[in-house]
Design a protein that fits this description.
This protein is mostly beta strands. The chain contains two helices and nine strands. The protein has one domain. The protein has a five-stranded antiparallel sheet with strand order 1-6-7-8-9, with helices on one face. A four-stranded antiparallel sheet has the order 4-3-2-5. It starts with a strand and ends in a 7-residue tail after the last helix. The protein binds zinc ion. The site of zinc ion (ZN) has 8 residues, from loops.
């Protein structure tokens, strides 16, 4: 599956290659992180100078590397949001992808029209909260 990730604020393509490029910020530090473009794959490549100070359970702020806007979800502040398009399906409408901002908390939700798909071991914790919301505005 070939997926394109876009900033919800400026529509910049965030995975010009296979990795999704984001700015991560924690306390006073920030660095570039490269996330997998496979949903549910939580391997992250990151600037060691930054990652060294991040512990499991820390909440990270993600920003767009193009417009520098925060990607934190307004509806669910524990999550960051991106737009995602499946390039294998012609005319596929952009979906909303939400992933946990908490380090090593594996919870991702994909909102594709009316359906919600959950990924990651910790997704079950949030499932109810994420499913009761309707009307995504597209
Ligand atoms: Zn942007």
């Amino acid at each position: 599956m070939s997926l394109s990730y876009y900033c919800p604020k400026c529509d910049a393509l965030l995975n010009p290659n296979v990795r999704v490029v984001l700015i991560a910020r924690h306390s006073e530090k920030q660095g570039i992180v490269l996330m997998s473009s496979q949903i549910g794959d939580y391997q992250v490549i990151c600037d060691k100078g930054f990652c060294h100070d991040v512990a499991k359970g820390d909440t990270i702020e993600f920003r767009c590397p193009v417009c520098h806007e925060s990607l934190t979800s307004e509806a669910h502040p524990n999550f960051a949001e991106l737009r995602i398009v499946n390039d294998d399906r012609k005319g596929h409408e952009p979906c909303l992808l939400r992933f946990s901002r908490v380090s090593e908390e594996h919870a991702t939700f994909l909102y594709d029209g009316d359906s919600v798909k959950a990924f990651g071991e910790e997704a079950g914790v949030f499932r109810r909260e994420m499913e009761i919301e309707g009307d995504w505005g597209w």
